[in-house]
Amino acid sequence: MTTYGTILIPVPLERAAPVLREVCAAGYAIPAGQGFCLVHPDRSVDDNDVFALAGPISAELGVPVLAAFQYDGDRLELEVWRDGVRDHRYDSWPIRDDEDALDEPLGADPAAFLDFAAGPVDGHRLASALADTPIDVEDMDVDGEPGYVWAQALHWDVLRALGHPDQVTRRAQWDYFHMSGAPRALAEVLGGTELIALGTADRPF
Fold first, then answer.
1. Residue 11 CA from chain centroid, whole number
2. Is there a smaller number of Cβ atoms within 10 Å at the N or the C end of the chain?
3. What does R_g of the chain's alpha carbons equal in angstroms?
4. What does each C-alpha distance from 48 to 22, 52, 96, 181 come to in angstroms?
5. Is 134 in contact with 124 (CB distance < 8 Å)?
6. Which residues contact 5 (CB under 8 A, 6 or more apart)?
7. Taking the CA of residue 193 as centre, how many other CA atoms within 13 Å lie in the half-sphere pointing to its CB?
8. First vs last Cα of the chain: how many Å apart?
9. Residue 199: strand, helix, or coil
10. Which of 129, 195, 106, 118 is CA-nearest to residue 162?
11. In whole numbers, what is the pLDDT of the chain averaged over residues?
């Protein structure tokens, strides 16, 4: 499954763009619905992954930002940054790196993510997703184990519960390395909405 890292910012792209051009060494920024934008950084560049960039972006823009990293379909990590400081961390599978951790999600507090709501919040779905307890049968582990079969589905439910439309959630799960392979085609897929290439990323035209 695809690994991806994105940053969700609750300001329009045109407002965020000057800061993103300053702090992101390579990546793409795209609109993400009314009043939001997304950043897809090139994490192969030193100090340019989502968690390294979230602090400076939040400090410069003066708004909270939500950094997400999904690893190989197995694990979702979310960090909320405010004024340059990490305010909250979520990890769907903390025991993967720490055998002493509880075998349950870390930081499953729905209130920590409410600043990123794009519409009415489905509190039940949000709490269930963060607890790694899927509501929809198709998202459950086929082997009968508790939890989501794929971390992408967990991420999808978090954004869905926060009122983001499906189109935005799909964009939040795009990966920089796929985007960089065909930036012109990507710009066309966006249907005329703005795509900004940051730093050394290939331009679409």
1. 15
2. C
3. 16
4. 12, 6, 24, 19
5. no
6. 40, 41, 43, 49, 50, 67, 68, 69, 70, 175, 176
7. 20
8. 30
9. strand
10. 118
11. 89
Residues 29 and 17: beta-carbon distance below 8 Å: yes
Single-letter code of the amino acid located at 88: H
Distance CA 134, CA 154 (A): 7
Q: Using the structure block, give the residue that is written with the tokens 């899927």.
A: 134
Residue with tokens 């790694």: 132
pLDDT at 187 over 80: no
Cα 58 from Cα 64, distance rounded (Å): 5
131, amino acid identity: A
For the segment 3-18, what is each residue's pLDDT rounded down to a tens digit? 899 999 999 999 999 9
Taking residue 193's Cβ as centre, other Cβ atoms within 10 Å add up to 12
35-88 tens-digit pLDDT:
999 999 999 999 999 999 999 999 999 999 999 999 988 899 999 999 999 999
Q: Is-contact 57 8, C-beta < 8 A?
A: no
pTM of this prediction?
0.91
For residue 145, the SS3 value is: coil
What single-letter amino acid sits at 157?
D
CA distances from 55 to 50, 61, 87, 193 (A): 9, 10, 10, 27
The first and second tokens of residue 110, run together, are 């729905």
pLDDT given at position 140: 62
**DSSP labels for 6-30?**
EEEESS-HHHHHHHHHHH-SEEEEE
Find tokens 């920089």 and name the residue: 176
